[in-house]
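At this stage, I wrote out one protein, both as residues and as discrete backbone shape codes, and that material follows here.
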Amino acid sequence: MEGSYRKVSIHYVKGDATAPQTEGHAIITHVCNDLGKWGRGFVLAISKRWKEPESQYKAWFDGNTKPQLGDVQFVAVTETLTVANIIGQHGVRSPRNKTAPAPVRYDSVREGLTLVADYALEKSASVHMPRIGCGLAGGKWEQIEPIINTSLTSKGIEVFVYDFE
């Protein structure tokens, strides 16, 4: 079936990425670090709505096999809503150290979004996200957007990118 997808574009919307306004199954996708640290940025909005994505992310690091860059953890929060924790950031950058290299890892974001695409196609789901990898992870949208198009929209998956008002 490769190549038989209907090409779609990214939908840019103003609003809250934790509250998708679409019918059917939705996947809220975001980028996490590879240290098991959860406590700044978009994850706070997720934790305000649901406890499971944070608790399962932290538990993931407690096991014998730690998640690696490019891995994704899918956490169902309702029957039709899943949070995808993508390990796409190596370490964290201190708010005091603005000159440190950006922790985002574009190849890992690409790997993660490829796994999100497989899951979305299996569930006939749309994908919802803030401008992943561009906040605390320090990435550039000009590099993330083509990754989203290659990994998701080129496969006919509806993608909604939210800019919080």
Notes: Residues 106-123 form the longest helix (18 residues). The first strand starts at residue 10 and ends at 14. The radius of gyration is 15 Å.
